[in-house]
What we know:
Elements: H1 3-25, E1 51-56, H2 66-81, E2 85-90, H3 97-108, E3 113-116, H4 122-131, E4 136-140, E5 149-154, H5 156-170, E6 175-180, H6 185-201, E7 206-211, H7 218-230, E8 235-238, H8 244-251, E9 255-260, E10 271-277, H9 280-292, E11 302-305, E12 312-315, H10 323-338, E13 348-349, E14 355-357, H11 365-369
Parallel strand pairs: 1-2, 1-3, 3-4, 4-5, 5-11, 6-7, 6-8, 8-9, 9-10
Antiparallel strand pairs: 10-12, 13-14
Helix pairs in contact: 2-9, 3-4, 5-6, 5-10, 7-8
Amino acid sequence: MTDLQKRSLLKAAALTAVAAAALVGCGKKEEPAPAPAPAPVAAEPAKPEPLKIAFAYVGPVGDGGWTFAHDNGRKALEAEFGDKISTSFVENVPESADAERVLRDMAGQGNKLIFGTTFGYMEPMLKVATDNAGVKFEHATGYKQADNMRTYDSRTYEGAYMAGVIAGKMTKSNTLGVVGSIPIPEVIRNINAFTLGAQSSNPKVKTKVVWVNGWFDPPKETEAATSLINGGADVLFQNTDSPAVLKTAEAKGKRAFGWDSDMTAYGPKAHLASAVINWGPYYIKATKEALDGSWKAGAGAHSWWGVKEGAIDIVSMAEDVPAETKAKVEEVKKGLADGSFAIWKGPIVDNTGKVQIAKDTVADDKFLGGLNFYVKGVEGKVPGAK
């Protein structure tokens, strides 16, 4: 084979290879596999409706005392639970048949947790609770319960005792005055505890009491405070809901205490200290239980909180209260918190000389719940007592 023939064959082979490559290049292009379809997004669960909570107040929210303190507790709820709850209130609800109407209206508006914040709502709330089994009811300062109604209270007498320690030291006349609201055990306990505290720092003191037969009545409270001052009292205490007593002391150059809330601003020169209630811890506990399903009522379902639970305190003691007196108050507070100090430890004698609590005996809550006498040092007789 000549060289020319060889070159011709090689050229033909090369052309064949090029043609074959061209045919492959012109073939059908392979399509990529389609991307998998996205998984369907699960729908978000519907947000639960907020728990509707209502409060019935016996006085105005601006009373500076009892109702103001309860409303601060309601605000603590809102801060704690946010949009999990919805709160409302009705103020100035009288302790009468009108209370039943208001409570029924609250239940009818879809509230599932209802707080009644005064003793006189007990019977109306029992009626409404009986007819609204799906609603949870809480009654302040009462003693009757039902399957869907329980009771709660604060140991206000602890604050009264600590105020008394200060009063006994600060009085110059050795005569203390108390403006009482309604003569029920709760109030009588406070008068007695105030006097016992005062006697612990000054055995010479005596206590005068004027009753106004109402919780919030500033004109009557002013009149009662004036009467006590005219009777020789130079330090005043109260179990009423307005700052009228402190204002009267300020106007007449005497001393007094705030009650239920810090009342310093209403009489800064007269103010010795304020015995306050913090309802927030209990309201938060009750609401948490209503939300998580652990809320329980029935016979004996009663909470009674004090210094130990953070419900009672004495605050804003005046600068002129002696350091040793302030230290004694702090010692009492510590003892109440850890259980090492008991206010109602005998011997305690009433103002007729009868031993009511024997030596070294500590009164139980049942005894305190029915207390209906004045301790030695309190003048007069408990209204309605035998």
